[in-house]
């Protein structure tokens, strides 16, 4: 009675504590909402912090606190469960046997005899299995024979039901590793190249912790003896759930400020969506365990490396076969660590020292570079030879993390089927489609990264409108979003680019998905239909299946109570109701009927896809089918399509995950309730922690997102896929009358293909070879866009392990192969984590060699003429220059002719003109002249958008220009990198707002420095500054057909003249007066030093808040260095702020002292003021006033020299060959004519956007209307 009272008290206390926690959470949310937060999603996680480190530790503390309650509750639950099991065993009238072994089932034999699943029962009652005897050629029995040959020597052959499994120790360690891996994996998913820390790593690290806990004093509940294999499995199952929930993709897409930015979504709504997408599929796993878990033929080869890990760590009593007995004396545990160490050492080569080994285009090496122009691939290399842009014929990889342990343990017939399918799709079908130009434009498809070569291996979309000058160019899916209409289709944008093209390889990938869907259904019905029908009948009659009942492991699992089907039905009903609520009342919305249609779709495919996964180790997904079906039903609704995709894909994946864990529990003899509880607890904890981590990285990580290495490409891919399947919709791609309508035949071909081997087995000759012709595996081709290097190496790995080792080295195969597979995967994962963390910390291997090429060239540079591992030769850049000039000239001509009718109407029509007509006409003429000027000038402008130091170019550098020291390059690169990270997000917290410029102050005690960064954010403010130049005209109107302008000044003058001519306005005659009108004295009203009034107004607004803050920091930290940094217009304001900061000191001595601790660095800064302003800056004696100018950046030329404007400070010019040149401005009247002033200023946008390879916040200069 006391025990029941305690249990009741615990159950009552749980909801009370949950209610109290909810009250505290509600009060916190209410207080958070009372503060002015710019984004509703931040309400839970917007914690006050002074530094990113504080934010991180506060978020970590919040995470720990949020999960601590769940951990304690789980520990209490495990205590109750374990206590109930102890009571059940002690009160049972017929106590369970202490040890179950196969000898008890096979008959009284002292010697171990493996049980034949087809042998009759030993009690003499063979009536239940008599109809099964003699079913020769049945695929299920063929599979059973193969399973026994690959399992018995690694899977435990006995069981002790009293062995602890679901204990306080296992649950606590499992929750701990679940929290660690969930948070880490979710944060690392925002990396440019995301990676996941596998549950095997947690299993290895949990082993010493479990043994350490076991060394503590014995306690019946808290420490029940030795750390057992069953406890270890529970920890692994919980840790393995700590992947990134698929629903997080949808959360990030809708909530992230730089994606859909839905500010109405709260944290709790996101958490609810993640939870229902994670749990809705679990009911299917329980209801289908008769088909996917209990049959012996469903052997799940993907589990074998995991079983190998546990068998080596815990020395399970697997079968001692004659072949392995006495041959190898080394234990599996020792062999595991030797294999782990060897792979750990080796993986540093392809992942760090020689990354080119990750993808080798062997076809290019055999065929040669060809004789094309520099940088232009030969026809063979572009389509077939290159593993990066083509199909990668004979492509190789020596990186084990790309291969994986599954190919060591996968049945060889499945490997052959999969390899054959990839070979036919990539090496045969794709080149044929390209050669015949099946869908057109194959030779024209180009991406921005490589405008010279057609691309085959890509997921890009391409413009197919034959009337467009951009025909064949890649177009972002985001172009088709209508942001004002909930990100649905923008019909106007689609009409501009339609019909949309994809590469032949990407089209085949969609075709293969259609083939797989129907072939899986047909294959299952033909080969396993009778068995499934028998199991369904037995399930309806609540009878044990006669074949499954003969399985040795199913017999041992009879010692544990099974979870009834009704429990799974009830759970699925609750999850369905929760899904309906989330779908109807949160912004993660879709029609109510879509929930039930989603369940129907998952229920239809969970058994076919599960059978294929369980037999072959190849997992199939529902993402393409779910997108396709829902996109046809509700076309153009992006959010609904994304939500349906998340539910459909994740429901199936979670159902198969639990099925695999149930099979793992069956092999290692864990109670079903323990496996299900571990899976549910891990999923619940990982959902909470993963959602918290996603919100933390989106709103509390400072400037991390958007910086180098943190561009969250995976989430941007999901965002783009929403445009393809949601906004554009499958009917526009595959509907009747569309470009790719013929791919719909793949549904019928897939349904018919499995019939052929079935008929061959039935009417030609019965053989299991027919069964191995598995079309769902043959059709499962994917990974377009990734390097095509897996076919050869995965086939060779399977050939060695499943043919050579299995037949010629059976003893090694049986004792060590699965252990080696587990060790290899674990070691590769550890190296991956370490190298990734080193990359985050800025540590890289910089010694260039043939296997570690420069970033200036592709990783398969040996495919390209004129390339080596450092760079391309000069001819490639000449070609790039000509292509750029041609494109910009075509753009100008197209824009001019498009608007010429409006210009003529402006001249001839005497009626009042519509508002804006003159502006359009002026813009047409301006764009025409700009295009022609750039097309001429680009002959000297470097076209490569990378602008990385060290790139080659044919131009020579005058002798008077000395290359800057390496120290200067390093310093300026570091400043550019830090500024780029800050400007990428421009978080409002901690910034000082001006009229159009924001500033941020950052205190760095480790460097003893204060950084003040400036950036312009308002196009209107920039427009005011630019329009002021139109008030000044230095020459009379000229004909619109005047000679092409040769300099930026004459180009601007032509614009002013054209404006005056068309408006019938006389030009200004008093130029100096007009110049004076746009200048303001600085630093006071009596100064002869004058600056542009727009810059002065910006600074005056910022100074109100900035100056007191800087004065306070100056008094607190007099020895600290103050660094002022800005880009473009922000750079101009940075110079004014630094000058005012120094000038405001009360005495000249204080000015000099302060000036020595002040520096100014700007990038792409325009001219600020007159020559007197330059003298004023020089008089302040600031330690460094540096301005960096890119080759071709036009912004530094604004504020014309002929109007009296002069640059200030020291100029460092990144010239045409990407050297950082130290310019001699003093010797050339303030500006060195051999630096930025030697060339035409009207350069491309990227020249202003990128400095030292880092993307600056794009100044609204290019968005402003002039």
From TrEMBL:
<protein>
    <recommendedName>
        <fullName>Fungal lipase-type domain-containing protein</fullName>
    </recommendedName>
</protein>
<feature type="transmembrane region" description="Helical">
    <location>
        <begin position="297"/>
        <end position="313"/>
    </location>
</feature>
<feature type="transmembrane region" description="Helical">
    <location>
        <begin position="566"/>
        <end position="586"/>
    </location>
</feature>
<dbReference type="InterPro" id="IPR002921">
    <property type="entry name" value="Fungal_lipase-type"/>
</dbReference>
<feature type="transmembrane region" description="Helical">
    <location>
        <begin position="673"/>
        <end position="697"/>
    </location>
</feature>
<dbReference type="InterPro" id="IPR004813">
    <property type="entry name" value="OPT"/>
</dbReference>
<dbReference type="GO" id="GO:0006629">
    <property type="term" value="P:lipid metabolic process"/>
</dbReference>
<keyword id="KW-0812">Transmembrane</keyword>
<feature type="transmembrane region" description="Helical">
    <location>
        <begin position="818"/>
        <end position="851"/>
    </location>
</feature>
<dbReference type="InterPro" id="IPR029058">
    <property type="entry name" value="AB_hydrolase_fold"/>
</dbReference>
<feature type="domain" description="Fungal lipase-type">
    <location>
        <begin position="1073"/>
        <end position="1199"/>
    </location>
</feature>
<feature type="transmembrane region" description="Helical">
    <location>
        <begin position="193"/>
        <end position="213"/>
    </location>
</feature>
<keyword id="KW-1133">Transmembrane helix</keyword>
<dbReference type="Pfam" id="PF01764">
    <property type="entry name" value="Lipase_3"/>
</dbReference>
<feature type="transmembrane region" description="Helical">
    <location>
        <begin position="264"/>
        <end position="285"/>
    </location>
</feature>
<dbReference type="GO" id="GO:0035673">
    <property type="term" value="F:oligopeptide transmembrane transporter activity"/>
</dbReference>
<feature type="transmembrane region" description="Helical">
    <location>
        <begin position="592"/>
        <end position="615"/>
    </location>
</feature>
<feature type="transmembrane region" description="Helical">
    <location>
        <begin position="513"/>
        <end position="533"/>
    </location>
</feature>
<dbReference type="GO" id="GO:0016020">
    <property type="term" value="C:membrane"/>
</dbReference>
<comment type="similarity">
    <text>Belongs to the oligopeptide OPT transporter family.</text>
</comment>
<dbReference type="Pfam" id="PF03169">
    <property type="entry name" value="OPT"/>
</dbReference>
<feature type="transmembrane region" description="Helical">
    <location>
        <begin position="742"/>
        <end position="760"/>
    </location>
</feature>
<keyword id="KW-0813">Transport</keyword>
<keyword id="KW-0571">Peptide transport</keyword>
<keyword id="KW-0653">Protein transport</keyword>
<feature type="transmembrane region" description="Helical">
    <location>
        <begin position="233"/>
        <end position="252"/>
    </location>
</feature>
<feature type="transmembrane region" description="Helical">
    <location>
        <begin position="789"/>
        <end position="806"/>
    </location>
</feature>
<feature type="transmembrane region" description="Helical">
    <location>
        <begin position="55"/>
        <end position="81"/>
    </location>
</feature>
<feature type="transmembrane region" description="Helical">
    <location>
        <begin position="717"/>
        <end position="735"/>
    </location>
</feature>
<keyword id="KW-0732">Signal</keyword>
<feature type="transmembrane region" description="Helical">
    <location>
        <begin position="919"/>
        <end position="938"/>
    </location>
</feature>
<dbReference type="InterPro" id="IPR004648">
    <property type="entry name" value="Oligpept_transpt"/>
</dbReference>
<keyword id="KW-0472">Membrane</keyword>
<feature type="transmembrane region" description="Helical">
    <location>
        <begin position="333"/>
        <end position="349"/>
    </location>
</feature>
<feature type="signal peptide">
    <location>
        <begin position="1"/>
        <end position="20"/>
    </location>
</feature>
<feature type="transmembrane region" description="Helical">
    <location>
        <begin position="416"/>
        <end position="435"/>
    </location>
</feature>
<dbReference type="GO" id="GO:0015031">
    <property type="term" value="P:protein transport"/>
</dbReference>
<feature type="transmembrane region" description="Helical">
    <location>
        <begin position="387"/>
        <end position="409"/>
    </location>
</feature>
């Amino acid at each position: 009675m006391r025990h029941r009272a305690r249990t009741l008290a615990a159950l009552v206390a749980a909801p009370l504590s949950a209610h109290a926690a909810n009250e505290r959470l509600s009060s916190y949310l209410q207080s958070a909402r009372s503060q002015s937060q710019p984004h509703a999603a931040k309400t839970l996680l917007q914690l006050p912090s002074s530094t990113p480190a504080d934010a991180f530790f506060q978020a970590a503390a919040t995470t720990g606190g949020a999960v601590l309650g769940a951990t304690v509750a789980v520990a209490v639950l495990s205590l109750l469960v374990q206590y109930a099991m102890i009571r059940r065993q002690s009160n049972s009238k017929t106590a369970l046997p202490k040890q179950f072994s196969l000898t008890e089932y096979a008959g009284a034999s002292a010697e171990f005899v493996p049980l034949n699943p087809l042998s009759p029962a030993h009690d003499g009652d063979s009536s239940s299995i008599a109809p099964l005897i003699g079913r020769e050629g049945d695929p299920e029995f063929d599979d059973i024979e193969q399973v026994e040959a690959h399992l018995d020597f690694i899977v435990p052959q006995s069981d002790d039901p009293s062995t602890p499994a679901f204990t306080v120790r296992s649950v606590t360690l499992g929750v701990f590793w679940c929290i660690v891996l969930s948070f880490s994996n979710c944060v690392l998913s925002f990396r440019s190249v995301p990676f996941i820390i596998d549950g095997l790593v947690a299993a290895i690290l949990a082993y010493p912790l479990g043994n350490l806990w076991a060394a503590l004093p014995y306690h019946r509940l808290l420490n029940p003896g030795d750390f057992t294999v069953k406890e270890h499995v529970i920890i692994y199952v919980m840790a393995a759930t700590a992947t990134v929930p698929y629903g997080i993709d949808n959360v990030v897409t809708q909530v992230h400020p730089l994606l859909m930015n839905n500010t109405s979504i709260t944290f709790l709504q996101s958490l609810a969506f993640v939870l229902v997408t994670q749990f809705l599929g679990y009911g299917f796993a329980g209801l289908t365990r008769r088909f996917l878990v209990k049959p012996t033929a469903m052997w799940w080869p993907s589990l074998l490396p995991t079983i190998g890990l546990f068998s080596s760590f815990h020395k399970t009593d697997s079968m001692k076969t004659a072949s392995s007995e006495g041959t190898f004396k080394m234990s599996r545990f020792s062999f595991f660590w030797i294999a782990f160490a060897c792979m750990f050492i080796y993986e540093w080569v392809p992942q760090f020292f020689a990354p080119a080994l990750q993808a080798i285009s062997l076809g290019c090496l055999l065929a040669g570079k060809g004789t094309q122009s520099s940088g232009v691939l030969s026809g063979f290399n572009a389509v077939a030879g290159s593993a990066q842009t083509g199909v990668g014929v004979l492509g190789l990889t020596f990186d084990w993390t790309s291969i994986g342990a599954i190919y060591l343990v996968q049945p060889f017939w499945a490997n052959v089927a999969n390899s054959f399918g990839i070979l036919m799709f990539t090496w045969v079908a794709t080149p044929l489609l390209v050669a015949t130009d099946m869908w057109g434009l194959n030779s024209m498809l180009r991406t921005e990264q490589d405008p010279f070569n057609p691309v085959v291996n890509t997921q890009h979309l391409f413009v197919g409108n034959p009337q467009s000058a951009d025909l064949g160019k890649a177009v972002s899916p985001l172009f088709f979003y209508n942001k004002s209409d909930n990100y649905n289709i923008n019909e106007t944008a689609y009409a501009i680019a339609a019909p949309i093209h994809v590469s032949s390889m990407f089209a085949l990938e969609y075709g293969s998905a259609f083939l797989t869907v129907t072939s899986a259904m047909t294959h299952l019905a033909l080969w396993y239909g009778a068995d499934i029908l028998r199991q369904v009948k037995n399930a309806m009659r609540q009878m044990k299946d006669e074949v499954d009942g003969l399985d040795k492991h199913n017999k041992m699992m009879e010692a544990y109570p099974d979870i009834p089907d009704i429990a799974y039905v009830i759970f699925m009903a609750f999850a369905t109701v929760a899904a309906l609520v989330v779908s109807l009342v949160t912004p993660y919305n879709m029609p109510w009927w879509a929930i039930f249609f989603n369940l129907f779709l998952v229920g239809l495919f969970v058994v076919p896809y599960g059978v294929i996964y369980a037999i072959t180790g190849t997992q199939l997904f529902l993402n393409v089918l779910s997108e396709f079906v829902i996109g046809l039903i509700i076309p153009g609704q992006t959010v609904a399509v994304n939500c349906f995709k998340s539910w459909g894909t994740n429901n199936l994946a979670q159902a198969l995950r639990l099925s695999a864990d149930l099979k793992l529990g069956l092999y290692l003899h864990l109670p079903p309730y323990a496996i299900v509880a571990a899976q549910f607890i891990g999923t619940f904890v990982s959902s909470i922690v993963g959602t918290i981590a996603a919100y933390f990285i989106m709103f509390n990580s400072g400037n991390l997102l958007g910086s180098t290495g943190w561009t969250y490409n995976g989430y941007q891919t999901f965002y783009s896929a929403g445009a393809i399947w949601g906004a554009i919709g499958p009917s526009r791609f595959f509907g009747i009358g569309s470009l790719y309508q013929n791919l719909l035949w793949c549904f019928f071909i897939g349904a018919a293909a499995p019939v052929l081997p079935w008929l061959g087995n039935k009417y030609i000759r019965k053989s299991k070879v027919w069964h191995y012709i598995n079309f769902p595996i043959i059709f499962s081709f994917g990974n377009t866009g990734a390097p095509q290097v897996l076919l050869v190496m995965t086939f060779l790995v399977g050939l060695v392990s499943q043919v050579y080792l299995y037949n010629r080295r059976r003893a090694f195969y049986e004792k060590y192969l699965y252990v080696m597979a587990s060790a290899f995967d674990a070691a590769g994962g550890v190296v991956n984590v370490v190298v990734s963390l080193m990359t985050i910390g800025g540590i890289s291997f910089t010694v260039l060699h043939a296997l570690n090429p420069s970033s200036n060239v592709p990783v398969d540079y040996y495919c390209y003429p004129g390339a080596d591992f450092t760079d391309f030769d000069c001819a490639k850049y000449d070609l790039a220059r000509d292509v750029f000039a041609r494109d910009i000239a075509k753009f100008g001509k197209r824009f001019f002719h498009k608007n010429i009718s409006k210009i003529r109407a402006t001249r001839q029509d005497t009626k009042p003109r519509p508002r804006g007509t003159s502006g359009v006409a002026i813009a047409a003429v301006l764009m025409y002249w700009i295009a022609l000027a750039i097309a001429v000038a680009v002959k000297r402008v470097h076209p490569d958008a990378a602008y990385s130091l060290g790139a080659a170019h044919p131009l020579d550098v005058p002798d008077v220009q000395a290359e800057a020291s390496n120290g200067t390059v390093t310093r300026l690169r570091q400043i550019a990198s830090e500024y780029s990270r800050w400007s990428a997000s421009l978080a409002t917290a901690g910034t000082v707002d001006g009229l159009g410029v924001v500033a941020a102050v950052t205190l760095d005690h480790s460097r003893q420095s204060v950084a003040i960064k400036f950036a312009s954010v308002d196009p209107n403010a920039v427009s005011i500054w630019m329009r002021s130049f139109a008030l000044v005209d230095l020459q009379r109107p000229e004909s619109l057909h005047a000679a092409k302008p040769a300099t930026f000044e004459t180009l601007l003058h032509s614009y002013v003249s054209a404006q005056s001519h068309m408006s019938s306005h006389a030009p200004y005659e008093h130029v100096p007066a007009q110049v004076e009108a746009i200048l303001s004295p600085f630093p006071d009203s009596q100064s002869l030093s004058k600056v542009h009034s727009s810059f002065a107004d910006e600074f005056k607004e910022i100074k109100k808040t900035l100056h007191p803050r800087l004065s306070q920091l100056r008094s607190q930290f007099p020895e600290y260095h103050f660094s002022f940094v800005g880009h473009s217009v922000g750079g101009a304001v940075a110079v004014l702020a630094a000058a005012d900061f120094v000038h405001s000191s009360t005495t000249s001595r204080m000015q000099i002292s302060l000036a020595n601790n002040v520096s100014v660095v700007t990038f792409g800064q325009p001219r600020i003021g007159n020559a007197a302003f330059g003298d004023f800056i020089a008089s302040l004696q600031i330690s460094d006033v540096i301005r960096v100018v890119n080759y071709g950046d036009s912004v530094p030329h604004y504020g014309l020299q002929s109007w009296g404007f002069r640059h200030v400070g020291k100029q460092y010019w990144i010239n045409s060959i990407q050297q950082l040149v130290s310019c001699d401005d003093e010797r050339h009247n303030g500006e060195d004519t051999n630096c930025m002033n030697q060339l035409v200023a009207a350069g491309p946008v990227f020249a202003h956007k990128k400095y030292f390879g880092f993307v600056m916040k794009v100044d609204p200069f290019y968005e402003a209307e002039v």
